[in-house]
Amino acid sequence: MKALKCRECGKEFLPTKIYACEHCFAPLEVIYDMDSIRLYRGFFKNRPRTLWRYHELLPIKDKTKIVDLGAGYTPLHNCDRLARKLGIRKLYIKDDTINPTNSFKDRPATVAVSKALEFGFKNIGCVSTGNLAAATAAHAAKAGMPCYVFIPFDIEMNKVLQAAIYGAKIIAVKGTYDEANRLAAEAIDEYGLAIVNVNIRPYYVEGSKTLIFEICEQLGWRAPDNIIVPMGSGALLCSIWRGLKQFMEIGLINGLETRIIGAQPEGCSPIVKAFKSNLNDIFPIEKPRTIAKSLAIGDPGDGIYALKIIRESNGVAESASDEEILEGIKLLAENEGIFTEPAGGVTMAVLKKLIESGEISRDEEVVCCITGSGFKSSETILEAIPKPIEINPLLKELKNLFEVNDHE
Fold first, then answer.
1. Segment (H or E) for 350
2. Cα angle vertex 228, ends 227, 234, to 5°?
3. Which secondary-structure segment (H or E) carries 264?
4. Is pLDDT larger for residue 327 or for residue 393?
5. In sequence order, what are the beta bridge partners of 318?
6. Cα within 13 Å of Cα(385), Cβ side
7. What is the pTM of this model?
8. Which of the chain's termini has less CB crowding within 10 Å, N or C?
9. Contact indicator for 329, 346 with CB cutoff of 8 Å
10. Per-residue confidence at 404, pLDDT binned at 50, 70, 90?
């Protein structure tokens, strides 16, 4: 790690606790000394199957501070059955539901908690729509650090339960995610907190890019043709593009023609609306209304950067209604046996829409990012599934059931 660099004015700073440019207040990103990093494909053969296999491209100097629950190196499923159903040549699902706390947020959390320890923070926390709460709380528990989680009051109870069981103090703010975010930012100096996605953010986001590192490695060291990424703040999409460019610069992949496709729920789709209106600015959504609560960020912090990347990569942005999201969840579960939360339902619904509209050609290859488990959102999804059929313990009633099905 060489420096922190402002994403707007380009000024560089020493990699310390600062998280915004001291001149223009824009966000900072980690700069590595790429000339000094020597990585070859063969190096990875015997490395641990976690995201720390790419440690040279992660911002931790002191390896003794790494807090590792085994996040990363999740499966890239070859989904031939679903590809045939949708009429597309090749479809892969990157399945981050099997991370330690069942979402991709374990990736940035393991990096951020490790960095907070390295900086000497004594208390840690996050602002979350649910998944980051559990991931931060679990890694804080492993590190033995008190954890404070700021959430909007209306997120799914399963996600609250998961963070609470790891011992975190849950602070439910009566307002939106953006209002919870403002409160957490105000608490940083007052209480000496390391809020992973606020004042540790330049380092935190580095963990997410390991998702695309793994995809490239699992595809035989090449970049995918298309990748569909669910967007809340837009940070994951930005990290994926950053990871692709770093692998290209180091020489671990030989070409980069990937189309980056952003997906949002219709009830909270400020980035998609800006893309479709050909605007360069993002207009916040004051009151998000969607069942995809993990994507319900009305004022996306990385929205303008996500927008630029989608355009730079000749990609596209699309949204999905609540009904389409539930259909997307069922489509993936019934054809590939993968149970996603609504954010993954957005990804699948957008894939289906873009194939049907011709935006994605039927002879192309697509990777879809499934970023969290459906069990985290069971309250929401329960309403969309058929209720069990109750029968008496009589063989004739079972026979009647099968006969009914035979005629369907």
1. helix 342-357
2. 110
3. strand 259-265
4. 327
5. 263
6. 16
7. 0.94
8. C
9. no
10. low
Tens of pLDDT, residues 69-87: 999 999 999 999 999 999 9
Residue 368: predicted pLDDT: 98
State how far the alpha carbon of 323 is from the alpha carbons of 306, 349, 380, 385, in Å: 25, 9, 12, 12
- H or E segment to which residue 316 belongs: strand 316-320
The CA dihedral of 48, 50, 55, 59, to the nearest 10 degrees, is -160
User: Is the four-CA dihedral 251, 103, 335, 361 of positive or negative sign?
Assistant: negative
What's the rounded Cα separation, in Å, for the pair 7 and 354? Answer: 31
Q: Which residue has the tokens 């199957």?
A: 49
Residue of 238, 227, 228 whose CA lies nearest to 205: 238
Task: Fill in the DSSP letter of residue 390.
Answer: P
Please tell me the distance from the alpha carbon of residue 84 to that of residue 86, in angstroms, as a whole number: 5
| Contact predicate 364/122, CB 8 Å | no
Please write the tens of the pLDDT for every residue from 197-255: 999 999 999 999 999 999 999 999 999 999 999 999 999 999 999 999 999 999 999 99
